[in-house]
């Protein structure tokens, strides 16, 4: 776990407190983690997500099928 000291605006502090109260979280760290997790899912492109990379690496290990003429094979 990483610890950070950050400067936030009064408005940002109010938002964190609202999320903390609304979600019944124990502290502001939990509220920030929730906010960042939700926001991160929205802004990160799928190819940058660690689970997507893991999925690609697993797919590379799968056995492949050779096809001589794709268009005649799959119409």
What does this molecule look like?
The chain has 4 helices and no strands. The mean pLDDT is 88. It is mainly α. It has one domain. Helix 1 packs across helix 2. Helices cover 59% and strands 0% of the residues. The chain is elongated, with a radius of gyration of 22 Å. It has helices spanning 10-22, 28-43, 50-60, 70-73.
Shape annotation: elongated
Structural class: mainly alpha
Main β-sheet description: none
Q: Tell me the strand percentage band.
A: under 5%
Low-confidence stretches: none
- How do the SSEs run, as a string of H and E? HHHH
By DSSP, the count of extended strands is 0
For the termini, the CA-CA separation is 52 Å
Report Rg: 22 Å
How confident is the prediction overall: mean pLDDT?
A: 88
Any idea how many domains? 1
Supply the number of helical segments. Answer: 4
Q: Give the % helix.
A: 55-70%
SSE order and pairing:
Layout: H1 10-22, H2 28-43, H3 50-60, H4 70-73
Helix pairs in contact: 1-2
Outline:
The chain has helices spanning 10-22, 28-43, 50-60, 70-73. Helix content is 59%, strand content 0%. It has 75 residues and is an all-alpha fold.
């Amino acid at each position: 776990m990483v610890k950070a000291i950050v400067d936030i605006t009064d408005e940002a502090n109010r938002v964190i407190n609202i999320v903390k109260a609304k979600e019944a979280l124990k502290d502001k760290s939990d509220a920030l983690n929730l906010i960042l997790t939700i926001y991160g899912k929205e802004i990160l492109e799928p190819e940058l997500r660690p689970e997507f990379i893991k999925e690609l690496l697993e797919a590379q290990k799968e056995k492949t099928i050779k096809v001589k003429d794709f268009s005649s094979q799959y119409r």
